[in-house]
Amino acid sequence: MASTRTLLFTGKGHVRFDTHTIPAPKPGEVTVRTLCSGISAGTEMLYFRGAAPADVDITLDAVSGPPRYPMPYGYAVVGVVEAVGDAAGHATGEAWLGRRVFAFHPHTERFTTSCERLIRLPGTLADEDAVFLPNMETAVGLIHDASPLPGERVLVFGLGVVGQLTGALLGEYVDSTGVDPFPLRRRQAEAFGFRRALPPDGAALQDLFHGADPAGGADLSIEVTGNPEALDQALALTGYAGRIVIGSWYGARPVELRLGERFHRAKQSIVSSQVSALPPRLLGRWTKQRRFGLVLEVLQNIRPSRLITHRIPFDKAAEAYALLETDPGSAIQIIFTYPPGSLHPH
Asked: Nearest 5°: CA angle at 305, between 101 and 151?
């Protein structure tokens, strides 16, 4: 058995390390040494702040059931297989030992898990790009749920990692506008595929669609701020018969919407988007495996490691959460780095 350290959320605003041993891999299992892992500034920070609903079930490897402190969390780990069980040496003709893999797993130095829970990474995909796999899957899911049409006017509220990746996927065939209060994120968005990026409280955003034919407003708004207050602005800036797709998870916070004003007459639709399930209309053709294949391809094309603003050693994990809590405008993506071993560059 090997020793490892796992990061634990111990209560509102507190984390610590737990040192423990992990079992040797059984047949069909492998032990993975972590190379890097990514922090989710949305979902993960809800758990850090103690704002996640108590009745939600977590369905991640090594985490299950409702959240109870102390608890591990995290779901973006890139690592290398350093040990295999007797029957896990080969799968589909390829050896696991030494393979780089992705896992939906909490932040930890190493872990033993089933081969079925791992995604093998192509040799051309860098570690720091692969760590964005969950975010890219979410962005792909948003595009599938939103079904943007060529030439549509699209607003994306929230230019964190998911918002940035969604803008990159929207590409040149829509008129895309990102909305975010933080200048760093707006600058990055304009370099990452958005035609423009504006603050939520500026006159330029209010005037953006003035005089647009036929009735003004966005055709489609995608809300990924994590802030329920952004929904009212999305409703106000979306035009007649427009769609609002909600990708945020608000946790236990209540959501109040002004639906008694223009919403009904505008015949707008509000759609939820959640990455754990495929849109029902796609189930006849798409599977999770097919979507993962697309995500790996897009990661290699977009190279989202450009969004990493901080690389913090795992030893100093508490500093990362403090930064996101006190100065969120200075960070887009924070990753933990783990010795020993070096990152796979490309």
From this structure: 110
List beta partners, residue 336.
Answer: 37, 312
Q: Which amino acid is at 141?
A: G
49, exposed or middle or buried, with CB in 10 Å at 0-12, 13-18, 19+? Answer: middle
| C-alpha span between 278 and 273 (Å, rounded) | 9
What does the mean pLDDT of the chain come to?
89
Q: What is the pLDDT of residue 92?
A: 41
Give all domains of the chain, ordered by start, each with its CATH number: 2-126+305-337 (3.90.180.10), 135-280 (3.40.50.720)
Q: Which residue has the tokens 């919407």?
A: 257
Q: Which residues touch 40 (CB under 8 Å, ≥6 apart)?
A: 74, 75, 76, 134, 135
> What are residue 156's phi and psi, to 5 degrees?
-120, 110
Question: Exposed, middle or buried, 269 (CB in 10 Å: 0-12/13-18/19+)?
Answer: exposed
pLDDT value of position 215? 62
**pLDDT value for 93:** 34
Residues of the chain with pLDDT under 70: 1, 54-66, 87-94, 210-215, 341-346
Tens digits of residue pLDDT in 64-94? 566 788 999 999 999 999 999 975 545 443 5
Q: Cis (ω within 30 of 0) for the bond into 340?
A: yes
Alpha carbon distance 304, 259 (integer Å): 37
The reply to whether omega before 214 is within 30° of 0 (cis) is: yes
Total residue length of the chain? 346
